[in-house]
Amino acid sequence: MNMYTISELAKEFKLTTRTLRYYEELGMLKPMRTESGKRVYGKKEYAQLKIILRGKKYGFSLVEIKDIVLLFDKDRTGIKQLEKTIDKAGRKLNEINERIKELNELKQDFEQMIEGFTVHLHHLKVKGNLGRRQN
């Protein structure tokens, strides 16, 4: 069984040891301890850390991620964890679609504004050139 020290796991995932301790403080990771008190991470914590990082990548809050990570302890089949993940991912997708809609509207506003300003600038330049010719 692969076991990792805190330094090894941090290096594996390109994190700081402080980050791993923080996840432990939040109750998201529960490493085993050696007799001397050193943290030891196994396959379970490795998998949990992958879920945590994937959740962060997709914009989930740490509270949402913790909820998903800890479900596996309650249901070893993984069914509840997947159901919760699907539910939260669906909500996140709805948020993303709403943001895309808002950004598309903002994009159209900017395009119209730029087009209007460009036409106005052209008219000002033409008007300025006519005034110079008359002098």
What general form does the structure show? elongated
The biggest beta sheet is recorded as:
3 strands, antiparallel
Number of helices: 5
- How is the largest sheet built, in terms of strand order? 1-3-2
* Unreliable runs: none
Q: Averaged pLDDT, please?
A: 90
Whole-number total of structural domains: 2
Oligomer: single chain
Structural class of the helix and strand makeup?
mainly alpha
Helix content: over 70%
In total, the number of strands is: 3
Order of helices and strands: EHHEEHHH
Radius of gyration: 27 Å
Q: Can you put this structure into words, describing what you see?
A:
This protein has 2 domains: 1-60, Multidrug-efflux Transporter Regulator, Chain: A, Domain 2 (Orthogonal Bundle); 75-135. The protein contains 5 helices and 3 strands; from the N terminus they run E-H-H-E-E-H-H-H. It has 135 residues and is mainly alpha-helical. The model has no long low-confidence stretch (mean pLDDT 90). It is elongated and about 95 Å long. Helix 4 (62-74) packs antiparallel against helix 5 (79-134). Helices cover 75% and strands 5% of the residues. Strands 1-3-2 form a 3-stranded antiparallel beta sheet.
Structural features:
mainly alpha; 5% strand; elongated; 2 domains; 135 residues; Multidrug-efflux Transporter Regulator, Chain: A, Domain 2
Secondary-structure blueprint of this entry?
Blueprint: E1 4-5, H1 6-13, H2 17-25, E2 32-33, E3 39-41, H3 43-57, H4 62-74, H5 79-134
Antiparallel strand pairs: 1-3, 2-3
Helix pairs in contact: 3-4, 4-5
